[in-house]
Write a structure and sequence with these properties.
The structure is a homodimer. Chain A is α/β, with parallel strands linked by helices. Chain A is built from 13 helices and twelve strands. The longest helix of chain A has 17 residues. Chain A is elongated and about 85 Å long. Chain A binds a DNA duplex (16 and 16 nucleotides) through helix 2 and helix 4.
Chain lengths: ~350, ~350
DNA sequence: CTGAAAGCGCTTACAG
DNA sequence: CTGAAAGCGCTTACAG
């Protein structure tokens, strides 16, 4: 059973293929009776548009690539949900790849745009190699590349991000407000823009509050559970242990708490710990995690909307270039006043 | 700057487009000198194949749709990683959608195959509506649909799954071996094939070991953290509390333990709890979770490989129809001998 | 409001 | 080993 084409519909409706095409894409432009006959013929033949043909003819893939640093990271799933929802509303499909895989396969990232597989690209990885960033920047389709969550310092791509500074400052102030004066920070991976933004904001806020900050209270991590465990060991070994720890991610905070618990140290009784992100799991953790919430679905939806605007109205001059989405402090049970 | 086409390459190499095409897809068939001139011309022009054109001509989308019940579920991320890796090796792209979103958008699932957007489909959702399953079964492209992890009872799609029965029996035997005689089970969602398979296997194994099993020791859940919390409340309210609980998923086990901890009940001191899946988080949980490990990357890779075999050699008669992948017992700290 | 015709960029029998 | 030509299934100026 061959699937039917526009030709088949045209034959049944006794009109030209041009008219069928118009009826389908722009019904207002044809007469009432044509519209009826065509839609009847579509029903009879079970016609479905062939997207490969349409894509070739319109020079548009009707799909968008989402690039993740790592598919196996649960942080991204809700963002994908937001992106996908918005994309599919507009008739676009979502292609997924990870930086690592694209690299391993020997493909170039820009190929996705060059070979008409995707019309644009949402990059969730600010850690691209400089030469890859350079390639993207100089590509003719550079205006169809958008960064979300992370970004690349010095590059001028449109982007969607959350209020990292305000979130950090809210975190430090929360700890301050409940009485902490010695506060440590576990950072994200070295070189990551979120890591440095949050770390800088942390240092600035500590200064603003006139709090002492020893160099060893800034503990290097990398957003992962494992790094959180390591950071906990570092904290345990400290001469002067800060009474509160602000981690650059929830996973870090969870690993930190898990390791402490193995050493018989209780959170929040012995030390307050908070994270950043509010991943799904944060609420169920023991203890439920105090954190800074990012609306990841909204980040995804906003990114898709902004990118689609660029794809569809690429001529339009005043397109939104950057969106900064609000964060909020979520107080749960991993933070308490020092004893 | 227009991207160059086969024509451009042909002009530069002074051969026909047919020859360029052959050189690119089947180098062995052209002469040494042609090969050299063409690849030189490709370099000069910066030629990239236009996939839309190739897809139309070859009647193949070179992409596969992966259907998830829910994008925001971290269980799937490693599976996607496995699928994507295998797909991209073969030059295929991975399209992602969720059952819910496809449904909400008013599209039909089969449209992805009908409109040449995808050549096949990996379904990770055994809970499709019966009318959707029926539509998939009767579609001409039914042989390009493969289920992974979950499946639909009564339908005959090729599938990849793990040893659910053996995993369940390993779990029960582990609890038995360390001394438990009263064992409860928290199930997955009603109607789910994994739920019922694991529940049936649980009941069977309890019988085999001659263990008493009160009806109220089978607690209805749904794979989620929240359901695990609820199940814990049910367990707490029991007249006779089983000393061990086998949960149908890790998230369930984590929610269960989290809720117990809020009530001052300790795991594994007061009760042993185990899960199923070995999601990334299981190892970091407090206490680290004893569970049944599924190799989710392998599930993904196997699914992609089997589907691609069907797409590429659809004529071949003896294609693998079902793969059952091994599970293993991972003993951590959430289980111990009863006191 | 509608149709005839060109063409998007490839691949692949067919002929030589 | 190579080329001329047809054609995949659409959309869209252009003309009427």
């Amino acid at each position: 059973m061959k699937t039917s084409t526009l030709q088949d519909v045209a034959r049944v409706a006794k009109v030209s293929t041009a008219t069928v095409s118009r009826t389908l894409s722009n019904p207002d432009v044809v007469s009432e009776s044509t519209r009826r006959r065509v839609s009847e013929a579509v029903k009879v033949t079970g016609y479905r548009i062939n997207r490969a043909a349409r894509n070739l003819r319109t020079q548009r893939a009707h799909s968008v690539l989402v690039l993740l640093p790592d598919l196996a990271n649960p942080f991204f799933s809700t963002i994908l949900e937001g992106i996908s929802r918005n994309l599919s509303q507009q008739g676009y499909s979502m292609l997924i790849a990870s930086t690592k895989q694209v690299h391993d396969s020997g493909e170039r990232l820009i190929d996705y745009l060059d070979d008409a597989r995707a019309d644009g690209m949402i990059v969730l990885d600010g850690g691209l190699e400089p030469e890859i960033v350079e390639m993207l920047e100089t590509a003719p389709q550079a205006d169809r590349i958008l960064f979300a969550c992370e970004w690349v310092d010095g590059a001028d791509f449109p982007s969607v991000r959350c209020e990292n500074r305000r979130g950090t400052s809210a975190a430090v102030n929360h700890l301050y407000d409940i009485g902490h004066r010695k506060i440590a920070h576990v950072t994200g991976p070295e070189g990551n823009v979120l890591s440095s933004t949050r770390k800088d904001a942390f240092v600035a806020e500590m200064a603003k509050l006139n709090l002492a900050l020893k160099p060893e209270w800034i503990i290097a991590g990398d957003f992962s559970l494992a790094a959180g465990c390591l950071a906990a060991q570092t904290w345990i070994a400290l001469d002067v242990r800060p009474t509160a720890v602000f981690c650059a991610s929830d996973q870090l905070a969870m690993g930190f708490i898990a390791e402490l618990s193995r050493h018989g140290i209780k959170v929040p009784d012995d030390v307050s710990v908070m994270g950043f992100d509010d991943i799904d799991f944060a609420e169920q953790f023991i203890p439920p995690l105090t954190t800074i919430r990012q609306d990841r679905r909204l980040i995804g939806e906003t990114a898709a909307k902004m990118l689609l605007a660029r794809i569809v109205h690429s001529n339009d001059g005043n397109l939104e270039h950057a969106a900064v989405l609000p964060v909020s402090l979520v107080i749960r049970e991993s933070t308490a006043s020092p004893t």
